[in-house]
């Protein structure tokens, strides 16, 4: 006899879901088990539109569309329902934040450039004979010669038997002896203290004091780092906290150096963009900072403001007044300041001068110098040194809470210490040859020649790019890069979008394939909607830079004609 008992709405819904689950199970290659409570499908639904199960036993999820497949794997991971016997670590089970990391400077174009180099070596015919990598600020890779004094001392530190060789000047030997005597067992191969070799930290503090006109610097506030990047990531770790609307927001300039967006993504913080003013030579407007901050407070807790001066990728040098305005803004809005000053010797434009944030802060008086929390960063990788591979750097912390500083010291101790050779090289940067010492004249001659050549190439780059219709380049006031704006034909933009590429990525990839020139698209650094750029270094030797710029000029004209 047919059961005519009335079905409750809940029972009807449950039966409907069971029927749908059965159909779904039949159509797709997996089986399911129900939720713990009722051993039946859960009452919730996935955002992909399918019934969500507590456990899925996968046979082949590859039949699902990518977005749904990723979501299902995520839910299965959360529920501990991933298949056994396969890989423990897969793209679907790894840290989701890592997948959000993007670092354009070594992205797809650079990977393709490496492939092309291999093809050229294998005899594959190209319309060019070499790849010119103008994508990254790696001075020595571009042909810059190392500073003699630096390499002499590093050789002595690495192979102390050379201290008996009379080919080395006495001031180089004295520097090496002092560094080695501060290392365990008189060896640069020993671990150092986590904060860095003490005599190096004292030399860094003395350097900062000289640079800033006598404003004191405490060696205890100096942390030696594995390049500036390591210090930046460490400080961002300290600052990242909260959930939802209380999650830390990090204010970064757009265009920005991708280290910042990558680190923010990895740490799960919130990226808060403020835009530099391209029409005013990439200047920083306080009104834009205010707009950005107010908008961000609707969805997160902005706690930190990052400044790059001189700028990367935009090459601007901030005026003293601009730095004062930024400090006043940070004080008013209770923001932690991070000043990336790794290009502090790279200032070329007439009327421009580097001002450290610390110096300006203390010259503004106790109202600010006793309150504003600041960390500034420097490195051996840029300026005239270009010693990227040694990974030397430092950070100076100002007005940091003592308890937080103790946590910082604990955090850096987990990684034991920065590379000792990098620390030694940092010491030579801040304690270079002095007048009257044997190496002084050669050192100054080499330093001046490098910086003068960079200034010449900065001007050359701006001048040649501005002769090309459809390319507009601001003055390269400092740092090592130009970041010109390019006008792209509508057909090229549409073709790029059809291929799923950013238009300037499409442009740069074609440039690489046709000319061998490797640049980084502006989309990798961030830019205003509807604008397109690329970043190129000014580091190649002058003769090669001229070839690069002329090839670029010819390509842009051809590209524009092709897609018009």
Automatic annotation (TrEMBL):
Q: Aminotransferase class I/classII large domain location, by residue?
A: 152-551
Task: Give me the reactions it catalyses.
Answer: L-alanine + 2-oxoglutarate = pyruvate + L-glutamate
CDD domains (alphabetical): AAT_like (cd00609)
Any keyword Transferase?
yes
Q: Name one GO molecular function term.
A: L-alanine:2-oxoglutarate aminotransferase activity
| EC numbers for this chain | 2.6.1.2
Q: Which UniProt keywords apply?
A: Aminotransferase, Pyridoxal phosphate, Transferase
Q: Which InterPro entries match?
A: ALAT1/2-like, Aminotransferase_I/II_large, PyrdxlP-dep_Trfase, PyrdxlP-dep_Trfase_major, PyrdxlP-dep_Trfase_small
Quick one: which pathway? Amino-acid degradation; L-alanine degradation via transaminase pathway; pyruvate from L-alanine: step 1/1
Q: Which coenzymes or cofactors are required?
A: pyridoxal 5'-phosphate
What would be one Gene Ontology cellular-component term for the protein? cytoplasm
Please tell me whether the keyword Transferase is annotated for this protein: yes
The entry's function note states: Catalyzes the reversible transamination between alanine and 2-oxoglutarate to form pyruvate and glutamate.
Subunit and interaction comment: Homodimer.
Q: Which family does it belong to?
A: Belongs to the class-I pyridoxal-phosphate-dependent aminotransferase family. Alanine aminotransferase subfamily.
Q: From the Swiss-Prot or TrEMBL record, give the protein name.
A: alanine transaminase
